């Protein structure tokens, strides 16, 4: 078979693990690919120091590549990001790995093609094979990019078409290969994403056009919606091209990566499908889907708004804030329930001049019998929580939205529309405009100088999920911004791990 197969599991899959992989998993992977009809393995990036965390395979230090070189029988590829790499950086990035990597693939925005050619020539002069991973394939026609391809001759050992948005069709793949072949003489590759679950048929189309390289990953592990599953590609090639496949070894490596799949659950869904169909960036959608507590409805609505070139799909009246002597913000922590009796006594002793603001409706069901004004912050999944935990709103209850326009559009059920208002603006922070905590604090600041907090417990020491870690950092930053704006710390009436809050016992306020 003419087409070579490149596996980029460790490189593309690193978008889920921050490029950290258990060494035993990597060794199982290397052992398996040695016995599978895979020609190249792309094992990660060489990067300059960055403010964001990236693990071993985000930097591919020499000791990692030495181990891979000693272990694998396959050719080894490493990727550079053109946008963050200058020719002057290559001595630091590539000189230490001469002889350890065979190919350097460069991730390229076609808008920077001339710059990439200069970088690629410098890489080639160091003795490496050079691959161009050129992104945004579905937009090349509109960019007049094809006129630039002649510059590849004598430079590229591989020109890889990257379906960055996962939205091209087999017809697009075949048409693009014909255009490239008429323009250059270098080998051609295809790297598909699976937003519309077209990874296999698009790769088959590339193979039928005698594409020189195709990419895939174990279990389809890769950024956003992921990639073509290597096991699916090899099974197809075994059936239709008599490719010799050791299915026992393939099963071993699938078993090794299955715990990672169970943890991160990559793969397509409706937001990724919309992103693929409309050429929206994978990075933004992946952040929405994996790192924040957005509802699918709100993500879809955001993408639909973008498709229609509108800022937001709905606008509501601005909240005219009443004044209260005391405002209590209630979070989703267990303390809002464990201290419920004392909290109710506190509220009843101040009920004539008190309001409750629910940053999340997680604990709202325990407070429905309290006759004070209540405000419910509707961000992300909160409208669903409001429906299930509260149901029908009281006479003086209101729903509060972030200021217009909202990052993810507006998701309000019809039965709550007449009781829904939006903030005019967030005064104390420009970050996290769509955070429940931000909305709750701004609402409270508009109503009172005395703000108490209940149920912001924080997470105990030990393992935190990615969402818990991100939410903790987000809340800490928000509390610090609030403290600077107010010139004093907010007071938590229940135990909290947030040092940014000042803890005072609820019970000292109760007669």
Description:
By secondary structure, the chain is an alpha/beta fold. The strands form two sheets. It has an eight-stranded parallel beta barrel with strand order 1-2-3-4-5-6-7-8. Strands 13-12-11-10-9-14-15-16 form an eight-stranded parallel beta sheet, with helices on both faces. α9 links the parallel β6 and β7. The radius of gyration is 27 Å and the shape is elongated. The mean pLDDT is 91.
Structure summarized in a few sentences:
This protein is α/β, with parallel strands linked by helices. It is 38% helix and 14% strand.
- Average pLDDT: 91
How many distinct helices?
20
Structural class by helix and strand composition: alpha/beta
Secondary structure: helix percent: 25-40%
Order of strands across the widest beta sheet? 1-2-3-4-5-6-7-8
Distance between the first and last residues' Cα: 84 Å
What shape does the CA trace take? elongated
**What is the oligomer described by this structure?**
single chain
How many E-type strands?
16
Main β-sheet: number of strands, strand sense, barrel status? 8 strands, parallel, barrel
């Amino acid at each position: 078979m003419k087409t070579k197969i490149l596996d980029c599991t460790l490189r593309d899959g690193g978008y889920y693990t921050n490029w950290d992989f258990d060494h035993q998993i990597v060794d199982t992977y290397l052992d398996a690919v040695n016995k599978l009809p895979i020609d190249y393995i792309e094992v990660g990036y060489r990067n300059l120091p960055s403010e964001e965390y990236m693990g071993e395979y985000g930097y591919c230090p020499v000791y990692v590549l030495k181990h891979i070189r000693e272990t694998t029988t396959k050719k080894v590829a490493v990727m550079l990001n053109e946008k963050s790499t200058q020719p002057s950086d290559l001595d630091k990035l590539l000189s230490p790995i001469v002889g350890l990597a065979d190919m350097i693939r460069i991730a390229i925005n076609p808008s920077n093609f001339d710059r990439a050619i200069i970088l690629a020539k410098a890489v080639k002069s160091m003795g490496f094979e050079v691959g161009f991973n050129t992104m945004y394939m579905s937009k090349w026609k509109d960019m007049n990019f094809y006129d630039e391809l002649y510059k590849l001759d004598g430079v590229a050992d591989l020109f890889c078409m990257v379906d960055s948005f996962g939205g091209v069709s087999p017809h697009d793949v075949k048409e693009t290969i014909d255009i490239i072949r008429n323009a250059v003489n270098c080998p051609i590759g295809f790297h598909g994403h699976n937003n519309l679950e077209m990874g296999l048929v698009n790769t088959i189309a590339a193979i039928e056009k005698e594409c020189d390289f195709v990419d895939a990953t174990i279990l389809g592990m890769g950024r956003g919606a992921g990639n073509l599953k290597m096991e699916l590609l090899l099974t197809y090639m075994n059936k239709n091209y008599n490719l010799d496949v050791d299915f026992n070894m393939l099963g071993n490596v699938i078993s090794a990566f299955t715990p990672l799949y169970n943890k991160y659950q990559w793969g397509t869904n409706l937001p990724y499908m919309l992103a693929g169909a409309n050429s929206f960036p994978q990075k933004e959608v992946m952040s929405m889907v994996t790192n924040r507590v957005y509802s699918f409805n709100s993500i879809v609505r955001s993408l639909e708004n973008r498709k229609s070139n509108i800022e937001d799909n709905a606008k509501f009246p601005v909240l005219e804030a009443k004044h209260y002597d005391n405002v209590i913000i209630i979070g989703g922590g267990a303390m809002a329930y464990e201290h419920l009796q004392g909290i109710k006594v506190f509220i009843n002793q101040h009920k004539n001049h008190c309001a409750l603001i629910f940053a999340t409706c997680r604990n709202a069901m325990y407070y429905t019998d309290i006759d004070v004004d209540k405000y419910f912050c509707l961000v992300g999944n909160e409208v669903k929580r409001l429906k299930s935990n509260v149901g029908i709103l009281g006479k003086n209850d209101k729903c509060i939205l972030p200021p217009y326009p909202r990052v993810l559009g507006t998701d309000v059920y019809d039965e709550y529309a007449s009781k829904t208002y939006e903030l005019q603006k967030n005064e104390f922070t420009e970050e996290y405009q769509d955070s429940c905590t931000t909305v709750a604090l701004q609402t409270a600041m508009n109503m009172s100088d005395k703000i108490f907090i209940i149920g912001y417990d924080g997470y105990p020491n030990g393992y935190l999920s990615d969402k818990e870690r991100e939410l903790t950092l987000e809340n800490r930053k928000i509390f610090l911004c609030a403290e600077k704006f107010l010139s004093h710390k907010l007071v938590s009436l229940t135990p909290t791990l947030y040092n940014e809050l000042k803890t005072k016992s609820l019970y000292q306020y109760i007669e």
